[in-house]
């Protein structure tokens, strides 16, 4: 698609020397006595513009001398390949320069600004090549996932984010004024993606927002996040969900490595590895024994893992199997939602898993309980009122196939893939308890 | 991806006669004296199962006699090609039948139930082949759009749905209890997709929910809808946005026709046509003259079109150009948001358009005003307080390229593509002023 006469910076190197038009923003200006240099950046890269000062170029020289960093400009000039130019071995000798919009000269953030300051000015922070790359990686990753799903006969759904009641827990629920009454923001698409099963959709996926009124300020939580969900019919156990899940991860990482591997290595110092199939699977109880043997005792009152435990088991898996991923399986019923199916021979355990990537949990998956009488019992046991769950329980009363699926945090995957320590770095606009702006 | 030993119904016809396993739900049962027939349906189609009654098949016969419609079953049997069988020329002679989940025998909806009743039981309504097709079409359409965007270097973004203030109008805003304060649900991703322009992303797209506290009950409005958005840098006018938009529509419809054209003709009686490029463009003032000449006077106090006017101009375009689409351009500044750019030579008109498809508006697009001083003036003129828009106005103060884009209702496109008269038919779960369930 060509909208205007314009060459993207990334495409310049392949052109022969000659006239070009380039459009982007001013990254830096070196205003010297005999020659001026401007580094222009666009969505695809950076290029050096050059203006030797003489009588003919005086007008351009004056404009350049007044150029504020960040201003958007359109330039024409003569492209010249020159190995001595550090920046890509090319430069553009200016014949014209038009300032499209002038920037305020004082940039409010610097390279060493803290994350909160940078988030205040996220639109400037996103101009950094690393940030630009994050979202190109996101684009490639999602497209690879969706392509895999489409090729495997999945149906894409968009479930409502406005609900009459909670889908996960009443504790972290946002309340909405809804005409004369109340609505709640979906904490996950759980109930509605399950609805696709009695609806006979077979296999579904969704990528969309989810909301948690979680007051915590950790580096890996947000009040709004992009949830990647899939749900499939006719499974025999959680194993079938894991098989789908691991194939999906391989498809995504393969596409990202192919398209951005070199750039990720350059800008993030990360050599992406395509994981081998199958991913290691370790029952949670065994994982805890392994971690304990490594000298770490999980510090939790319940049966769950903790973040250090996840790091430890990931380190073990990396050492033993050379793998970045591990499925922790068979979580205790006591710490899983009522809709997880339990083992037939040991109801204290569920047909569920967490997927850990580079030491951090990115996803929870499970086979769902589809027998309505068992489901009601499990809900009661968790202190839930089956009457409040009425619409959800109806899904199971008119026939439903055995099914299961997972929910996964998109930004967590990106954070771990690019070895970032804070989710905020890889979310377009972060939302937390004290952040609604910009 | 094979999860379990199972053949999808749509793949049976290509198999040779022999043993098969099929899984799905009971569509109908004909329980005759000498032979029993069951139509089994799955996500891909329907197949006839047959059980001749004799001593050997008595157990299966008893199960079939007790089968409730909608129950999910697993069957094995002998596939046989037989041209006399109406349903696809194949049938499966049963060797086993397992009921996975029994349905309540009384189905709460019938083929002639009204839309509200059917929405109460949407998960059963979605079992109808037409409904299944709607969402397979949705999947193909979205994937074709995203593929086109990805091939054209667009970046996919997920903008926050929780905002500190309104993005469109204060009138139709949902308020959220946000910890100690308030937040609002995004009425569109407008401000945030524009933010990608000063961020230097170049071209972006998003498919995600948008929320309007619109109390109306028309056949084409919802309080939550899936918005399809794109925004591109370095345009010269709204014409560049339309060029992108029309190419996208062609890519989508081409993919849908290729994959589902025959089925759409069969189930909806619609012969999909791939629109020719370019789509007709008619300035709104001219469209009104044409409609008036056809004997219809637009009944509005302001300068806008009305639904009947849209139908009339669409009929005109169909007669004159044989086209299903028309861009109505150059809407009056008085009825467009403050962020639409106005014509340099006539500030009473905007660089904007509506896209009309089969007689109904599906999208609004425009070049955006990127000059911050002009933007502030236009905001004031609309009675908005620039201080409240502070974070948005900042996007334009540090440099921004000329840009524009569109927002489009996904379900409107589907509704019009499949000649449905009510949006509720093509939304997975409709949300309206009095509907939050299921």
From TrEMBL, chains A, B:
Gene3D superfamilies assigned to the protein according to its UniProt record, in alphabetical order: Bira Bifunctional Protein, Domain 2, Nucleic acid-binding proteins
Catalysis performed (reactions): tRNA(Asp) + L-aspartate + ATP = L-aspartyl-tRNA(Asp) + AMP + diphosphate
Residues binding L-aspartate: 168, 212, 364, 368
Region (Aspartate): 190-193
Xref: InterPro entries: Aa-tRNA-synt_II, aa-tRNA-synth_II, aa-tRNA-synth_II/BPL/LPL, Asp-tRNA_synthase_2, Asp/Asn-tRNA-synth_IIb, NA-bd_OB-fold, NA-bd_OB_tRNA
Keywords: Aminoacyl-tRNA synthetase, ATP-binding, Cytoplasm, Ligase, Nucleotide-binding, Protein biosynthesis
EC number: 6.1.1.12
Biological process annotations from GO: aspartyl-tRNA aminoacylation
SUPFAM superfamilies attached to this UniProt entry: Class II aaRS and biotin synthetases, Nucleic acid-binding proteins
Subcellular localization: Cytoplasm
Gene Ontology molecular function: aspartate-tRNA ligase activity; ATP binding; RNA binding
Binding-site residues, ATP: 361, 409-412
Gene Ontology cellular component list: aminoacyl-tRNA synthetase multienzyme complex; cytosol
Main location: cytoplasm
Its biological purpose: Catalyzes the attachment of L-aspartate to tRNA(Asp) in a two-step reaction: L-aspartate is first activated by ATP to form Asp-AMP and then transferred to the acceptor end of tRNA(Asp).
NCBIfam families in the record: aspS_nondisc, PRK05159.1
Family assignment from sequence similarity: Belongs to the class-II aminoacyl-tRNA synthetase family. Type 2 subfamily.
Subunit-structure text: Homodimer.
Protein name: Aspartate--tRNA ligase
Gene designation per UniProt: aspS
């Amino acid at each position: 698609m060509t909208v205007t006469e314009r060459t993207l910076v990334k495409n310049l190197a392949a052109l022969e020397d000659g006239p070009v038009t380039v459009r982007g923003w001013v990254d830096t200006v070196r205003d010297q006595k005999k020659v001026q240099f401007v580094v222009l950046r666009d969505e695809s890269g950076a290029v050096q513009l050059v203006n030797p000062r003489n009588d003919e170029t005086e007008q351009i020289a004056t404009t350049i001398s007044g150029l504020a960093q960040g201003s958007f400009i359109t330039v024409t000039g003569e492209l010249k390949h020159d190995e001595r130019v550090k920046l890509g071995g090319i430069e553009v000798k200016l014949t014209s320069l038009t300032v499209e919009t002038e920037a305020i000269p004082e940039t409010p953030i610097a390279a060493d600004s803290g994350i909160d300051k940078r988030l205040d000015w996220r639109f400037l922070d996103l101009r950094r090549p690393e940030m630009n790359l994050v979202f190109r990686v996101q684009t490639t990753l999602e497209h690879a996932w969706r392509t895999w799903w489409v090729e495997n006969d999945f149906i894409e759904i968009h479930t409502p984010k406005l609900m009459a009641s909670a889908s996960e827990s009443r504790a972290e629920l946002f309340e909405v004024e809804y005409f004369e009454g109340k609505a709640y923001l979906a904490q996950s698409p759980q109930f509605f993606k399950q609805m696709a099963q009695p609806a006979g959709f077979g296999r579904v996926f969704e990528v969309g927002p989810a909301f948690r009124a979680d007051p915590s300020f950790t580096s890996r939580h947000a009040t709004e996040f992009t949830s990647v969900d899939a749900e499939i019919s006719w499974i025999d156990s959680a194993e079938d969900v894991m098989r789908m899940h691991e194939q999906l991860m391989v498809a995504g990482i393969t596409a990202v490595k192919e398209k951005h591997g070199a750039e990720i290595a350059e800008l993030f110092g990360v050599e992406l590895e395509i994981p081998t199939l199958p991913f290691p699977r370790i029952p949670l109880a065994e994982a805890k024994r392994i971690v304990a043997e490594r000298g770490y005792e999980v510090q939790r009152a319940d049966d769950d893992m903790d973040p250090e435990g996840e790091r430890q088991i990931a380190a073990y898996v990396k050492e033993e199997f050379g793998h970045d991923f591990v499925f922790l399986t068979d979580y205790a019923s006591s710490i899983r939602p009522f809709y997880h199916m339990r083992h037939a021979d040991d109801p204290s355990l569920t047909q569920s898993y967490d997927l850990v990537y580079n030491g951090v949990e990115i996803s929870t998956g499970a086979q769902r309980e589809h027998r309505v009488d068992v489901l009601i019992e499990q809900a009661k046991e968790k202190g839930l009122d089956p009457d409040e769950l009425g619409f959800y329980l109806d899904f199971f009363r008119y026939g439903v196939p055995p099914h299961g699926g997972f929910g996964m945090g998109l930004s967590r995957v990106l954070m771990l893939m690019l070895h970032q320590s804070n989710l905020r770095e890889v979310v377009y606009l972060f939302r937390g308890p004290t952040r609604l702006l910009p």
